[in-house]
Every structure is written in structure tokens, then in C-alpha cells.
Design goal:
The protein has helices spanning 26-41, 126-138, 149-168; strands spanning 46-48, 58-61, 71-82, 85-89, 99-103, 106-112, 118-124. The strands form two sheets. It has a five-stranded antiparallel β-sheet. With 169 residues, the chain is an alpha+beta fold. Bound molecules: nickel (II) ion.
Amino acid sequence: MSVLSILEFPDPRLRTKAAPVTVFDAELKQFVADMFETMYAANGVGLAATQVNLHKRVLVADMSEERNQPLALVNAQIVAKEGSQVYQEGCLSFPGIYADVTRALKVTVKAQDADGKEITLDAEGPLAVCIQHELDHLAGKVFVDYLSPLKRNLLLKRLEKQRKQAASA
Ligand code: NI
């Protein structure tokens, strides 16, 4: 397995729309394993293929404290949504930046696993947030797109400042 490098905002490749997965082979399984390794190495709770510059509809997540509930979704689509929630989100493509985003409270997702087997999943709360956030990545969207221009500029300035500090440290 290998840790892949994560694209950081404002890399234009983060705006790429992912294509559906049509071949469920050993290469896909290896890619899913690499995505988990990359997410765990970065202490993330979710990762979309877009963020590692592979533009296929694959996402991984693990919301558990113990980091032992890996979830891989291929070709996931939200088929039902209910309610709303405000949750403070972060993103591995925006290190150190957090913002409140309003999303559906519950989602029903139809997807496939890495073997191509069909899955239906009902998610609620933080897991529902994570799936919606990662599906946005696959559509070329990022969480700061939901913020007002004022709030977004403030956060992006903070991101720049932190990058400069990290570079000079
Ligand atoms: Ni993200």
C-alpha cells in the first residue's frame, strides 16, 4: 500500500468531475486500500478520489474514534435526503481550516463496494455530513463554496497565512 499525495486548495484539479467506475478489478481494490492508508495517515475522517487526483467516483470514510470502521463507496449517489443540520467541517485539502456548513441530516445512499456489489446505506449525523462532503468533491465542489464571500475570503486568507508560517518554520 502507499500514501498518496493530497491536492490542496486552490489546486484547479479539485474542480474536476469524477467519472463512474466501470471496472471492478485488483487495481481498484489497490486504489481503495491506498485511499484508506492516505486518509488514516492524514488523520482524516473522509477522502474522495478527486483529492488524490484520480477522477473516479470513489470515496472512503471512517467516523469512528477507534479508526476501525472503514467504509468505501464506489459510484455513490444520494437517493433520499431528510432534515438539516449545521456541522463544523474540515477538509484534508484545506489543512487547519474549519467552517459551519448546513447539510441534510439524513441521507440514503445507493453505491457499490470495491467488488461491485450493490449497497444501500442510511446515514445520519456526522456520517451523513461526511458522505455529502465527499460526494461534493467528486462533483468538483468544496465546502467553502457554501460560505458567504466574506467568510470564505477570511478563511482563505487564514489558509494562506498558515501556509506561509509552515513554509518558514
Ligand atoms: Ni474534503
